[in-house]
Amino acid sequence: MKLKLKNCIILATDENGNFIVYKHEVLCVDNDKISFIGPDSEAPVCDIEKDMKGAVLMPGLVNAHCHGPMTLLRGVGSGLALQEWLETAIFPVEDKLKPIDIEVGEKLAVMEMLASGTTYVSEMYDFPYNSGKILSETGMRANISRVGLSFSEETEIPKGRFDECVELVKNWKDPYDRVRAEFCLHSEYLTNEGFVRRIAEVNKDLKTTVNIHVSETLREHEECKVRHNGLTPIQYLEKCGILDNRTYAAHCVWVEEEDRRIMAAKGASAIHNPSSNCKLASGFAPVKDLMDAKVNVGIGTDGTASNNNLNMFEEMHLAALLIKCVGKDATLGSAEEILKMATVNGAKAMGRDDTGELRVGKKADIIAVSMDKPHMFPAFDIPNILVYSAQASDVIMTMVDGKILYENGEYTTIDAEKVKAEVRESIERIYN
Ligand SMILES: [Zn+2]
Question: 124 alpha carbon to ligand 1 midpoint, in Å?
Answer without folding.
Answer: 8
